[in-house]
Amino acid sequence: MEVRSLTASSRSGKLWVGTSAGVSILDEDRVTTITTAQGLPPGAVTGMLEDRKERLWVITSSANGGLASIQNMTVKRYGPKEGAPASGILTIFEDSRGVVWLGTRSGICELREESFVCAGSTNAEAIAIANDAEGALLVADAETRRVLRFSGGTLQPAFTQSNREAFTTRRLLRDRDGNVWAGTAGQGLLRIRNGRVESFRRLQGLSSDTIHSLYEDREGSLWLATASGIDRFRAPRISRLSTLEGLSGDLITAVCASRDGGVWVGTAGTGLNLVRGAQIERYGLNEGLPGLTVISLHEDESGRLWIGTTEGLSYLDKGRRIQQLTSPDQGPLNRVFAISSGHRGDVWIIDGRNGVRHIRDTAVDTPERQPSSAGKTVYQLLVDSHERLWLGYYQGGVTVATGDSSKSWGIQDGVAAGPVQSMYEDHAGDIWLAATGGLSRFRQGRWTTWGTAQGIPAGGVQGVIEGEDGKLWITAGSGLYQLSRAELDQSVAGQPRSLRLTMDTPGEGANIASTARMANPRLARSLDGRLWMSSDDGVASLDPEHLRGNQLAPPVVIEAVVVDGTEMGAGAGKHSFPGREIEFQYTALSFAAPDRVRFRYMLEGFETNWSEPDSRRSIRYANLPPGDYRFRVVGSNNDGVWNTKGAAVSFHRPPLYFQTWWFRSLCVIAVGLLSWGVHRLRVRNLQSRFALVLAERSRLSRELHDTLLQGFTGVVYQLSAACQQFESNPAATREKVERALEQADRSMMEARHAISYMRVPELEAGTLVDALSSVGRSLTDESGVTLHLHVHGVARQLPYEVQANAFLIAREAISNAVNHAAASRIDVFLDYRPDSLNLSVSDDGVGFDLQRAAAKNHHWGLSGMRERAVHIGGRLNIDSRPGEGTKIELSILPGKRAQAAGNGHSLG
Q1: Strands in 121-271 per DSSP E
Q2: Are 462 and 479 in contact (CB under 8 A)?
Q3: Residue 870, phi then psi, degrees to nearest 5
Q4: Is the model's pTM score more than 0.70?
Q5: Which domains does the chain have, with CATH numbers?
Q6: What is the pLDDT of residues 500-556, one digit of tens each?
């Protein structure tokens, strides 16, 4: 079954489908089919129409009367008895009055009281029918390839159309703005408006020049079924006239509205044009123009048109003759790129060679009679309603001259930076200045400037003008912008406020970018209120009166919810979305200008304010706390109309494992244990540091005992001996005193070295054997004690720490034997073995009781020797009894020594 026709009921919501077998009615979830069994004419359905009475009209391919209506599931056929043609019905149409018309191969027929009446003088193959703006019928004649207008019972050409402009029209459509659109076979899409035809073809973006069907949606966009696909076409708000419509050229340099309703259009290299309705008049060299590049236009109070060209200045007199002006020396003027005049008739111009010139009654003043420009290049000028002359400079800034006085302003006074491109006075007397740095207004002696920070497009403003309703319009970049007067008036005391600009982009009309540096004026308003703009692609125009925005709020839908990369359902009801990352994808169904659709969103339960409007169609949230949420999104169409209801989805986010109570409890316990461990570590560290302090105190005590105490004991003995020989042998006494002083110096040095961790002086000059021999002689000299040093094995160099502590132990043992044991002989044994070092010091003195000595805590000598032995990993053995002498033995194993030495850093 082949679908031949499709239409939707705007009243009942039903969908009617015409097929090769009949008509199917789709109503919610039910499908009802009407065929020839219910009275439908045989043949495939070729066309359908639902009229205002909710009757569905059906055209079939039957050769014996293929017309019927369906109402309340009842079929009524129309044939010759009811005035309908027996065959050849091409289309059916309901006009603005509710009258149903048939288009046939031989003309048109009107339904009157359930009977069709065919017009006898409408011999046309009516393939398509539509209403024009006045409600009259327009008929597309397939035979003559013309669009005809039905008036007075006859069909007449709807507009002037030459043979080469014949179109094979297949469909006609009248849109909501009164424009008539014609879909053709091979000639693209036509717009018929005010008797003028505009064409849109593949060069303008259509997929094909052959159009089968037309449809206007609720936003005013046209949908075209072409030979190559489906196109969406939006009628441009800005229309355009170019060489295709009869202009002499497309590069427009100046536009000027005439007091008689016409619009003057200057071009670069192709002369001057007068646009009046659908008619265009051209003026060139033959009509008296001094040059074909028009760069400025101005009409004064008397209606005289002044024309500035690259070859001088001329004017159009009342007889429509162009007269050229010359300077006082009878020579032509140079490039005249700006013209203005006041109520008195005086005209001011800017001459490219001589600057500002004054004209009165077509007589040009000498260059000396002009306002001072302070060395700047005058780029624009304006004579305001008070006959003041305003001069705008290429270097920026402005000067106003009144008689012989003048006043200037610059950037420091609030004037927009950059070259002044145009100036304009509005109905309230405010002076507006368009510059590359922005838009400036002079009101009550103060300048206010709006730049890019306040919303002005980058590149500045080219033109400014006031609309018929008081609204302000500017051209900037390649677009036309409308400014809010309320927002402009809120900028008081020279403080600019941000602006919201309504923009008619190139995508919605002609590109109004202009590369002409000298183009004045760029913007004009004709008597009918239409705005005209210069561009590089013809003259553009806009009718603000009929500028109807898109008032339909777009439906907003949430298309998908993606949780950790997996798409979830987003339907009605409450959902559960576990996961760390949630993304919401949404859109708004607006086809007018999808790139200008804006959205605002808010996640209730997490956010309290709506987001700023933007064009994003998705938003992502990560690591949301567990709880209940509701995501809401609203959208606006291309004209800022918001759908405040929007769309929403409610969901619950369950906690992840690390967000559960038991996990948090474990974390609290773990933190407690960690804190306790840190505390214990800190206490242990403090104890270790305190132990180091105690060890250091012990070391210092030991060193002082081993150095100062032992050394000064020797000093005492030397001094005692010297005293005994003082009178009998002075020379010997002197020698003993000197030796005592040397001993004292050595003891002080040893004390300093020990305390500051320096090296033992006795070991600096030789080996351990040499050091023991030297200290033995020093301690036993003059004491009457003999010392014998016995070395077994081969002496070798040991780690310094081992040698230093072994030496200090031996020195302490020798000193004790000399000072306390009353010994007469001391034997020192040093045994170098392959795996150990043994050191022993024995004497034949009085000995001592080890237990009693251990009970005396102040006995630093013995305890010091034990500590030194432990420090280097050695073993110390002390053997002594009263009356039997003393023997001290030290054994050092290399492995233990290395291990012990690695745990400390003291030499003592």
Answers
A1: 126-131, 137-141, 146-151, 154-157, 169-174, 180-184, 189-193, 196-200, 211-216, 222-226, 229-233, 239-241, 252-257, 263-267
A2: no
A3: -65, -40
A4: no
A5: 3-237 (2.130.10.10), 556-656 (2.60.40.10), 685-901 (3.30.565.10)
A6: 666 554 445 445 666 666 778 989 999 988 899 888 888 888 888 776 667 788 899
